[in-house]
Amino acid sequence: MTFSPNDYLNGLVSWDDNEFSVGVQELDAQHKVIVQCINKLYLAIESDSECQQLPSLFETLIEYTGYHFETEQRYFHHLSKHEQLLHHLHHKHFLEEISMLHVNRENTRVTAIELLFLLTDWLISHILEEDKQLVQAELE
Ligand SMILES: [Fe+2]
């Protein structure tokens, strides 16, 4: 994924350290990339009715999210086996949802909007709830 550090940090979602930072630099940097993807997708929907950029956005997102989840799994060691399995299943489920949207897409614009909803919704539950809890538990 190649974004300049300050590109696309504002838009539909604006990166705000106070709101999004989980206190781990590596994870924050990767979450920023996800915010950049969301804003890029939003701009593509607004400005390009054919959403020509959608296929490549899908591919980058699936690839990047997989990479991000692998990184997060390194932060799971303090969790019980049961909690690790739950996190792993959440991740797997989300990746399957994006992949299914990708495979079943019919109308590009509708799919782009669905992807945008899925992502923003996930961003909020993933970063603001799950990851903050994950990091908090490690600090305790
Ligand atoms: Fe995350």
* Ends apart, CA distance between termini: 33 Å
How would you describe the shape? globular
- Return the CATH architecture: Up-down Bundle
Q: Main β-sheet: number of strands, strand sense, barrel status?
A: none
Radius of gyration: 15 Å
Bound molecules: fe (ii) ion
Task: Quote the average pLDDT.
Answer: 86
CATH class: Mainly Alpha
Look up the CATH topology: Four Helix Bundle (Hemerythrin (Met), subunit A)
- What is the count of distinct domains? 1
Give a written overview of the molecule.
With 140 residues, the protein is mainly α. It has one domain (17-139): Hemerythrin-like (Four Helix Bundle (Hemerythrin (Met), subunit A)), CATH 1.20.120. Helices cover 73% and strands 0% of the residues. The longest helix has 32 residues, at 108-139. The protein is globular, with a radius of gyration of 15 Å. It starts with 16 loop residues before the first helix and ends with a helix. The protein binds fe (ii) ion.
Which short descriptors sum up this protein?
140 residues; Four Helix Bundle (Hemerythrin (Met), subunit A); globular; mainly alpha; binds fe (ii) ion
